[in-house]
Structures are given as structure tokens and as C-alpha cells.
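Record type: monomer structure entry
Structure origin: computed from sequence
Chain ID: A
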Amino acid sequence: MNRIADLFLTFGRIGAFTFGGGYAMISLLDHECVEKKAWLTSDELMNVTVIAESTPGPIAINCATYTGYKVAGMKGAVSATAGIILPSFLLLFFISNFFENVLEVSLIANAFRGIRIAVALLIIRAAVKMIQKMVKKSPDKKTQIPILLLFFGLVLGMNFLHVRISTIYLILCSGAAGFFLFGLSREKGRGGMDYDPD
């Protein structure tokens, strides 16, 4: 029960103090789940982030559900998911019932302008940490870095040209590139190594 409560409180804290949605939460998820609690390894968090981005639902909730399930089974999954959802639900419930035009209050509007900067920095920090870990641990870094730079340049160029494309297509293209560049080459290498003429 202590572990269930710890999951609920930890993810409740992440949900209460992270503005900017799932991508901004990745940095806090890394700090709490990897560095502080050791519920996940860095590689697991990176893999969970990729899976959570590729499956339906918000990325932070998917990460919370996976972590909770890994730590304490189904009860842990429910506890972690409830913890990360509850603060946002209560805040939005309060705002929708008591403030019709909350952003028209100058004090709140100004606060949100400052929060936008913090959100952008949290997302950049999470991206930099993930790239550092990927490059540091990957044996295929000579191939991964050009792919990373290619897609980064592609997305940046499309933003400057105001060309809109769904991130789903970028994920599918990245997955296909990874499959052909890493998966097939390893299968060929494995086939050559495992071959026994006898």
C-alpha cells in the first residue's frame, strides 16, 4: 500500500506542477521515475515515451500507466494514472465552474505568458537529455545522428515554410527508417554469424 500511495503522490505532484502537457512532463518524469525513485531506467523511459507517442492517449498518462503497472501491477497503474489526471481535472473543474473568462484577468494572463517560456524550456531540456542518452548508449550513433539531423531540418524547414504535416507521418517514416537501417542489417549480420554448415 505504501508503494501504491507513493505512485499516486509522485504522479500527482508531476501532474500538479507541470504546465504544457506531456512533452513538458518528460523532464519531470525522468527526474522522478529514473533519477529519484529508480522505477525505470533511462532506456525504459525513452522506449515508453516512443510507445506512448505512438499509441492513442496523452503521452504523460500512458507513461504513468506503464510505470505504475511495472512497479505495482494493475493497482499501481490505476494509482499512477489517477494521480497524474486528478490535479488537471480538479483545476479545470474549478475554473469552468467559477471563472467564465479566466484569461481576461490580467494577473492570470500575464502569469501564463511567463509559464509559456518555462514550458518551452522544459520541452527543450527533455529533448536534449533524450538525445544525449541516445547518442551515448547507442552502438548505431553514426547512423542515428544523421537521421536525427535530417528529420530536425525537415521539421524546421516545414515550420518556416508554414507547411503543416501530421507528426504521425514523421513517426511512421522514422520507424520505417529505423527498421530498414538497423533491423535488417542486424538480421543479416545475425544470419551470417549463426550459420552452421553442419
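Annotation 1: The chain is about 85% helix and 0% strand.
Annotation 2: The radius of gyration is 20 Å.
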